[in-house]
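Let's inspect a concrete specimen:
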Amino acid sequence: MIEDYGVTEPASTVERPADTDTLECIGAGPWQHYVQVQCGKHMVPAVRPELRLVSELYRDRPDRYMPLIDHMRVHGSDLQLVQKAMAERGVQPALQARVLDLLRHP
């Protein structure tokens, strides 16, 4: 956990190499697909929400993936990255279609 100015945020590390760039904490994904987030007076690189979304879909955590979908509907998303990551993680096809529909129609 990182705490700055009274705000606590979870943090994780890249755990091991992989042949794909679509995983949140494994391989090249976090290094290739990231956003800069303001943390106090610092800008911190963080994994793209698209990769986090797919991790939560894979774990079947709607309480976590629905807020991510809501955020991306407002702020935009890389649909190709979401689609590729869902396919590689084996997210159920019906859920893949639902998520892509939600993201395409804000």
The beta strands are 2-4, 7-9, 34-39, 42-47. The two ends are 32 Å apart (CA to CA). The longest strand covers residues 34-39.
